[in-house]
Amino acid sequence: MGEQKRKQETKQTTTFIFGKKNFAWMLIGIGVIALGFIVMSGGGSDDPNVFNPEIYSWRRIRLAPAIILAGFGVEVYAILLNPNKEA
Fold first, then answer.
1. How far apart are alpha carbons 63 and 37 in whole angstroms?
2. Cα(26)–Cα(87) distance, integer angstroms
3. 60 near 43, Cβ under 8 Å?
4. How far apart are CA 7 and CA 23, in angstroms?
5. With a threshold of 0.85, does the pTM exceed it?
6. N or C, which terminus of the chain has less Cβ within 10 Å?
7. H-helix or E-strand containing 72?
């Protein structure tokens, strides 16, 4: 009898820390971060002797980093989200 009880106690169930909601929000956050890097790309010059001032545009200096930070905020939310809470 003691043998069976010990085997039952050592039997572990596999539970994941994150649920489907967490992973869905993580994918959304990764998408927002990727969007920020896409917005930041470009503006280079084919000729190294020619300066292209487009690299200092408002889109690359202010908008893209704000989008990336928002994506990291979504990732933090995804990590802290309780998957067992209803609603």
1. 10
2. 18
3. yes
4. 33
5. no
6. C
7. helix 64-80
Interacting residues of 33 by C-beta distance below 8 A, sequence separation 6+: 67, 68, 71, 72, 75
Tell me the two tokens of residue 13: 């169930």
The interaxial angle of helices 64-80 and 20-40, nearest 10 deg, is: 170
Give the Cα separation of 82 and 18 in Å (integer).
Answer: 8
Taking a C-beta distance cutoff of 8 angstroms, is the pair 55, 23 a contact?
Answer: no
- pLDDT score of 7: 64
Token pair 């994506």 in the structure block, residue:
71
Tokens of 49: 């002797």
Q: What is the CA radius of gyration of the chain?
A: 24
Which residues, other chains included, contact 73 with Cβ-Cβ below 8 Å and sequence gap of 6+?
A: 29
Write out pLDDT tens, residues 14-43: 788 889 999 999 999 999 999 999 999 987
